[in-house]
Amino acid sequence: MSEQQDYMVPEPVRRADSRFARRLERLSSRAQEVDRALAAVSEGKGGLVWTAEHGMGASATLELVCEAVATHEFAQPTVTLRCRPPAGVPAPGSAVVSVVSQVSQLAGGVVPERLTRVLEPVDPGFGYLPEVAAVALAELLVATFDGATVVLVADDLHLQDELSRSVLASLVAQRHAPVVLLGTAPAGALDPSAGPFELRAVPPLAPADALHLLLVERRLAVAPHVAARLAHLLGGNAAAITQTAALLTPEQLSGGSILPDPLPAVPAVRSLFADRLAALSEAERQALLVAAVAVVDRTELVLSATGLAMEQVLDGPLAEHLVLAGGRFAFVDPRMRSLVHADARLAERTAAHVALAEAHRRAGEEDVAVWHSALATLVGDPALVPGLLRIARRHLDRGDVVWAHEVAREAASQAGAEHRAEAFAIAGVAALRSGHVQDAADWLRKASRSGDDALRACTLGPLVAALTLAEGQVPDDVLSPYLRGGRPDGLPPDAVAGVVTGVLTAARLHAERGDGVSTSQLLDTATFLASWCEDDATPARLALARSWAAVFGVGERGVVPDVDLGPDHEAALQVSRALGLAADDRLDDAAQTLASVVASLAPVRDGGRWFDGPDAALTPLAEAHVRLAQALVHLWRGTLTRAADELAEAAFRLPLGLPFAGMGVAAARRLDMMTRGVVGPVATALEETCASPTSRPVRLGLLVDRAMGAAFAHHVTQAATLLELAAERERPDSARMLPLPGLDDVEAWVVAGRHDAAQRALARRRVDAKELPPSLRSATLVRADVSLAAPEDLTAPLERATRVNRTTASPYEHARTDLCAARALVRAGELQRAHGLFLSAIELFDDAGADAWTTIALDEHAEVVRLLGGPVPEDLTAAVPGVPGVLGGGAVVPGGTWPAAPRAGSMHAALGVARAGVEAQAALRPAPPDACRLAVRESDVTDEALAELRGRWADELTERELDVALLVVQGASNREAADQLYLSVRTVEVHLGRVFRKLGVRSRVELTVLAHRVGR
Predict the structure, then answer these.
(1) What is the pLDDT of residue 136?
(2) pLDDT by residue (tens digit) across 181-215?
(3) pLDDT score for 91
(4) Do the beta carbons of residue 434 and residue 415 sit within 8 Å?
(5) Is residue 137 a contact partner of residue 118, using CB atoms and an 8 Å limit?
(6) Order of strands across the sheet with 45-52?
(7) Which one, of 486, 533, 532, 528, lies nearest residue 507 by Cα?
(8) For residue 248, what pLDDT is reported?
């Protein structure tokens, strides 16, 4: 017995299902409702009615529940009957008649005569009692379905006649038959005390659900933080979110342009609030309008502007729409603010701003009064522009960059030639710091064309950053006029400092993108130009840029002068220090450094009101750098679950696709592959809205992700080929990337049976590993040595691996080393030793949260357990939910697990992998990844035609969209394309929808016809 227990599956298998259940609950606001319904059906009793406002998705929730009921395995069989409301005015008892009719059809017979009269509600000779009819109906259900649980589905239960509802209520309450009612009704339409039904409010869409709605179902390229913002402002109403998104521009959806404030009043919002707004008096509507356009939420100011007393607001109709507490006011529902603003006439808005300007002047708040006076001006007033610029600069200094942008944009619309360029510049800088890089690029281009040389020089840094982040390439041509040697002619010292800032900005951006040569040259140029600057800020910025470049392997880290240049500069300094600490394996110190930044500098304000919170705080773009660095540090520490959670939380608040040349995209994808085995919606959204899809981190990261997907699906040769392709795309003069744990190319080639390729990979790895942190470098190289060691020479590499593991803080890296060693021992025939290392790897992968790797290790461990004669629990033969292509899913190489190398021929029969020898690998070896040759079936599309299509469509489609389009042209289904590209089916659907839209086709057939036309 003890020997059998020694081979039992470890605890991680028993915890896998619960982990994925927790993840589902976190990502779906409907998961709890599904679980509650499944519990009721399992018990065979109860009634659940989901209530919600129009457009919230109660019916969609009900359908989701019904789908779950249909696919769930219950202890007792179930039968589903639908109680559809009839068209027009329902006859009394019509729902009962419908249920009886469905029972008769399913039973293939007639209702017993003794029950017919009891169940006939229109029989004038019978005193119809709902309770008696419910007893008869229960008897009929039991007799017909032999004790099976009957699920009654009643969408829009409130539309059923009162008699029908009474019978259904009695049927559920009496419990003479196992019956569960699942229904929907508008909020407030049913009396909670009128029946045995549990009324459950449909929760509003959470940010993750809103992202899924727009990205997957509506096939829109939307950034996670934009989806989250829409969900918040629109009350999580699915219809309102969808309608609003349809009115936004692609730049607004991707986060490149600022959202309108307020949001447009779409039909879903009007249907909810129009009647309530119409019920107010003209004075009350004007008071709401004043509250809607106010930028300061103090109650006394809105009362002063409206002339209302506190009691009139608290005791009157306005109390339904405004909440007053602690001397401040807010709208009960922000959607009412949108409707009030949209329905107001221009004269009414002007009057509201005039009233607020007067109220703020009486309170001695001239800045706010200037703002409202500017908005009350119909033809523009240049005299107000200096005040507006002063306000914009004040917001900018505080970190309120969205308001700084709004005020500067208003100043630009009213300014004359004297101030217009400055307004353009402030608007652009504010948009850049808020992450709205398309807006920033537009405004800063206008500023640079103003003809003011000094202003152009001062805004050079923001312009370079905006153009790079918006277009994906560092605009070196913008810098060229200032890089000709010597001091820039005719520029004052502060303008020269602006030029230095621009050059340093370009240097940092080049370093992030891997161009080490340009980075070094620009740093030297900036050092030369800085000699003409007399301020304290320039040396600090120069030192920060050198420290930043050193993070990417260019130059040496230096000491940055202690100069107060604001929270964003301090955050950048601490990020560079933290990444430097991480590179020295001081990961705990790096995490503490970043935590201190968040605690001391992160914004403590809601962003919706003027001059709230601290006097200075991080801007969204700066905070995005900090949060991404935090997630990377946790990833390097091997705490993948925490890294994934923090990255997702940041993505739903901040422009996380912008920092470090798209590293947020690469990190999100990699974490998904490590933890789930497929790319999830957050990573897909970041990728789809990334302005730098060809940047080095994104491009190389995508190849490694595809390699991991191939390895998880047991296509080892393809995985190794993709890794080699990624290595070949590296330039010898490249700056180093921030490391992301991926896949070991040496081991992949060994498993694929290509020792010559493995030796070449090892030679590359020994050179590349010099740029890695010491612990990661040691782990990578020792795994390569273990993989390549002959069976008789394994002892020394395994001992080195043990020593490396003792100093490896990351449980993930420790687990990968144990797994590599276990595989080597299997190839050497030492199954007992391999068994122990597999158990260690499984436990460590589970601790790290690397569920995809856990499943791989469990699969291979199961083979060893079988050969050792131990029992294999059933949960070892089923995949962990959410990880496709493993343990019975996806495309598996014959033989089950990774095929052993040819030299371990004696182990082929023992492990059942003889069928996965060299011949099978040759038959399964894929075409070059970039060719997108369909591997799942024969295709009549030639390689030449595919190449021509790729060239023709390259300017219109992204690389991933091209891959999907070419596979579909060859006849691949969405599932086949997903398997080929190692994506989820939903992600393929998103890409295919964009292909249709960009190429002007509506179906797969039209796409194929278009392809054949192009190929002629």
Answers:
(1) 85
(2) 999 999 888 887 777 889 999 889 999 999 999 99
(3) 77
(4) no
(5) no
(6) 78-82, 149-154, 179-186, 45-52, 198-201
(7) 528
(8) 96
Query: What confidence score (pLDDT) does residue 866 get?
Result: 87
Nearest alpha-carbon partner for 194 in 151, 138, 130, 123 = 130
Q: Which pLDDT score, from 0 to 100, does residue 338 have? A: 95
Residue 927 is predicted with a pLDDT of 35
Tokens 């419990």 identify what position? 175
The whole-model pTM stands at 0.82
Tell me the two tokens of residue 117. Answer: 């009269």
Distance CA 673, CA 186 (A): 41
pLDDT tens-place string over residues 319-331:
999 999 888 999 9
Backbone torsion region of residue 875, taken as left when φ is above 0, otherwise alpha when ψ lies between -120 and 50, otherwise beta: alpha
- Contact yes or no for 507/545 (Cβ under 8 A): yes
**What span, in angstroms and rounded, lies between the C-alpha atoms of 803 and 87?**
76
How many C-beta atoms surround the C-beta of residue 888 within 10 A? Answer: 11
The pLDDT score that the predictor gives to residue 931 is: 39
* Range list of β-strands (E), 53-90: 78-82
The secondary structure element, H or E, covering residue 388 is helix 385-398
Q: What is the pLDDT of residues 592-639, one digit of tens each?
A: 999 999 888 877 555 556 767 677 889 999 999 999 999 999 999 999
DSSP string covering 967-987, please?
Answer: HHHTT--HHHHHHHHT--HHH
Tell me the β-bridge partners of 149.
78
Cα Rg of the chain (Å, integer): 33
pLDDT score, position 27? 38
Nearest to 482 by CA among 465, 466, 467, 504: 504
Tokens of 778: 């040691």
Residues of the chain with pLDDT under 70: 1-29, 109, 113-114, 116-128, 485-490, 604-609, 611, 613, 731-733, 871-941, 982, 1014-1016
Instruction: Please report where in the chains the tokens 């409130």 appear, as a residue.
Output: 158
Structure tokens at 29: 């606001």
By the 8 A CB rule, do 821 and 827 touch? no
DSSP string, 779-841: HHHHHHHHHHS-GGG-HHHHHHHHHHHHT---HHHHHHHHHHHHHHHHHHT-HHHHHHHHHHH
CB atoms within 10 A of CB 314: 12
At what angle are helices 401-414 and 366-376 packed, to 10 degrees?
50
Q: Dihedral sign, CA of 287, 292, 296, 298?
A: positive
380 CB-near residues (< 8 Å, 6+ apart): 413, 414
Phi, psi (deg, nearest 5) at residue 331: -75, 135
Query: Which parts of 259-331 fold into alpha helices (H)?
Result: 267-278, 282-293, 299-306, 310-315
Could you write out the three-class secondary structure of 1-21? CHHHHHCCCCHHHHHHHHHHH
- Is residue 80 packed enough to be buried (19+ CB in 10 Å), middle (13-18) or exposed (0-12)? middle
Helices (H), 618-754: 620-637, 640-651, 663-675, 681-688, 696-712, 716-728, 745-751
* Rounded Cα distance, 249 and 523, in Å: 38
Query: How far is Cα 657 from Cα 686, in angstroms, rounded to an integer?
Result: 6
3-class DSSP assignment, residue 275:
helix
- DSSP conformation class of 90: P
Contacts of 950-953 with C-beta under 8 Å, sequence gap 24+, read 952/1014, 953/999, 953/1014
> Looking at residue 317, what DSSP letter applies?
G
Residues 532/496, Cβ–Cβ less than 8 Å: yes
**Residues across the chain:** 1016
Distance CA 836, CA 138 (A): 58
Are 714 and 898 spatial neighbours (Cβ–Cβ below 8 Å)? yes
Res 606: pLDDT: 55
